[in-house]
Amino acid sequence: MSTLYCVCMILDILFPKRCINCERFEDFLCCECKSSLKVIGFQRCPNCKKKSFCGKFCVEKFSMNGRLCAETFYFDQLILCFLYDKDTVLRKLIVNFKYKFLRSINEFFINILENQFSKFFYSDCLLETYDESIIVVPVPMSKEKLRLRGDNHAKILAQNFAKKLNLKFCDALWRTHREDQAKLKRTDRLINLQNSIFVKKEYESFLFGKTVILIDDIVTTCSTVNECSKALKNSNVRLVCVLALARG
Ligand SMILES: [Zn+2]
Ligand SMILES: [Zn+2]
């Protein structure tokens, strides 16, 4: 028996795993609470939220303002994992992942991200499967926020996702500190974000012609992932697929 195995066993006895939702002694999430999580079986257009092929934008006109759904967006596809509701188990899972970083939650998320990605990822380039031209990039966090939080959880997810799928990880973006998006109204969010996310100088030429899987935990209006995608497309990234846990 290895030392590590023994240490893990002792830790399990000293600190038995409890469900983060109902506190039952079982696992980080008991079977019952786990079954309340709803994994998304089909994706929607990121703009009008109509059911769509693989989370791509509708091709027909969007009737509300006569614009095409894809018109103001720079990414090509949005793949989500879970249905999100503020009171659900998922929210507790994400909060625990962000502030306590439980390894088992990380593994659970990575498995779901992998499943959804292999089910829904769509590339118009048939030769491009899991190869050199696909890179995994996290939504960046400003230095100031990083100092407060200690970790960028989107980066942790992206690193582990890339490792699991044997893809290249690249922390290609950086952002300036702006007011917290969550506190702002939709229109103010867009203004607040303008010219706040950039490609790091050292990756500008590396990104040419690449396909980027952009990882975030929760997307809301998509304004942050859109600003990231704008910076990536300006560095000649061919395709951006946003992969997130849920849409809040
Ligand atoms: Zn439970
Ligand atoms: Zn649409």
Structural notes for this entry:
β1 and β2 (67-68) form a beta hairpin. The chain has 248 residues and is of the alpha/beta class. The strands form three sheets. Strands 3-9-8-4-5 form a five-stranded parallel sheet, sandwiched between helices. A two-stranded antiparallel sheet has the order 1-2. It contains eight helices and nine strands. It has two domains: 1-35, no CATH class; 37-247, Rossmann fold. α4 crosses α6 (153-165). The relative contact order is 0.15. Bound molecules: zinc ion (ZN) (2 copies). The site of one zinc ion has 7 residues, from α2.
CATH class of the largest domain: Alpha Beta
Q: Looking across the biggest beta sheet, what order are the strands in?
A: 3-9-8-4-5
Major sheet size, sense and barrel closure:
5 strands, parallel
Strand content: 15-25%
**Under the CATH scheme, which architecture of the largest domain would be assigned?**
3-Layer(aba) Sandwich
The overall number of domains is 2
Secondary structural class: alpha/beta
The 3D shape can be described as globular
- The succession of helices and strands, N to C, reads HHEEEHHEHHEEHEEHE
CATH topological fold name of the largest domain: Rossmann fold
Defining traits:
single chain; 248 residues; alpha/beta; Rossmann fold; 2 domains; 5-stranded parallel beta sheet; 35% helix; binds zinc ion
